[in-house]
Amino acid sequence: MGRKWNNIKEKKASKDASTSRIYAKFGREIYVAAKQGEPDPESNRALKVVLERAKTYMVPKAIIDRAIEKAKGGGEESYDTLRYEGFGPNGSMVIVDALTNNVNRTASEVRSAFNKNGGSMGVSGSVTYMFDPTAVFGVQGKSSEEVLELLMEADLDVRDIIEEEDTVIVYAESDQFHAVQEAFKNVGITEFTVAELTMLAQNDLELPEDAQAQFEKLVDVLEDLEDVQQVYHNVDLGE
């Protein structure tokens, strides 16, 4: 199940931080989560998840505070949560999650990204059945044995625990996100290299070099779309 989470995240964070787009995407996601519930992460679990993930991408506090204050002030912006499914080169599978105030614009842009980069849109359910909703945490300063022990003491049975270089990666059911987070915090672990609710492919696909280059272009184009929040796929991009 090793997807080299730190390498993937660092590559994405470096790319996004250079354009500041990651901050805009998080600002929108935080605003929507805060507006849909209480603007307090202790009573709004969706907001708490977003804020934990924002910390791992080093989103500035000013951007987080601004989004929450905007929600508190009754901001009138309204966003729809959308999920698109599609196929890339060589039958690779892609899931695209978006937040948009213009459904037609977003659908057109996502479809165009697929069509121009060796892919095609699929119908609802054509891809997601090959992915599992998953909570992923990355912690440092502990061995996999120590992490397993503390999770067992918290009576948590997770899917998998692996070591990637100096980081221990925990894969758990999506509804265990808060329980795993609390188990770590109860032993003083409050900083995570990864804290994600994601869609994890059941099987990774390796592509030939030419197809992989085209696939990476497809993912880059999708991630650069203003309305796209997350792109999940089943391709092993290596390190």
Automatic annotation (TrEMBL):
<dbReference type="Pfam" id="PF20772">
    <property type="entry name" value="TACO1_YebC_N"/>
</dbReference>
<dbReference type="GO" id="GO:0003677">
    <property type="term" value="F:DNA binding"/>
</dbReference>
<dbReference type="InterPro" id="IPR026562">
    <property type="entry name" value="Transcrip_reg_TACO1_YeeN"/>
</dbReference>
<dbReference type="InterPro" id="IPR017856">
    <property type="entry name" value="Integrase-like_N"/>
</dbReference>
<feature type="domain" description="TACO1/YebC-like N-terminal">
    <location>
        <begin position="3"/>
        <end position="74"/>
    </location>
</feature>
<dbReference type="InterPro" id="IPR048300">
    <property type="entry name" value="TACO1_YebC-like_2nd/3rd_dom"/>
</dbReference>
<keyword id="KW-0963">Cytoplasm</keyword>
<keyword id="KW-0804">Transcription</keyword>
<feature type="domain" description="TACO1/YebC-like second and third">
    <location>
        <begin position="79"/>
        <end position="235"/>
    </location>
</feature>
<protein>
    <recommendedName>
        <fullName>Probable transcriptional regulatory protein M5X16_20695</fullName>
    </recommendedName>
</protein>
<keyword id="KW-0238">DNA-binding</keyword>
<dbReference type="InterPro" id="IPR002876">
    <property type="entry name" value="Transcrip_reg_TACO1-like"/>
</dbReference>
<keyword id="KW-0805">Transcription regulation</keyword>
<dbReference type="InterPro" id="IPR029072">
    <property type="entry name" value="YebC-like"/>
</dbReference>
<dbReference type="GO" id="GO:0006355">
    <property type="term" value="P:regulation of DNA-templated transcription"/>
</dbReference>
<dbReference type="InterPro" id="IPR026564">
    <property type="entry name" value="Transcrip_reg_TACO1-like_dom3"/>
</dbReference>
<dbReference type="InterPro" id="IPR049083">
    <property type="entry name" value="TACO1_YebC_N"/>
</dbReference>
<comment type="similarity">
    <text>Belongs to the TACO1 family. YeeN subfamily.</text>
</comment>
<dbReference type="GO" id="GO:0005829">
    <property type="term" value="C:cytosol"/>
</dbReference>
<dbReference type="Pfam" id="PF01709">
    <property type="entry name" value="Transcrip_reg"/>
</dbReference>
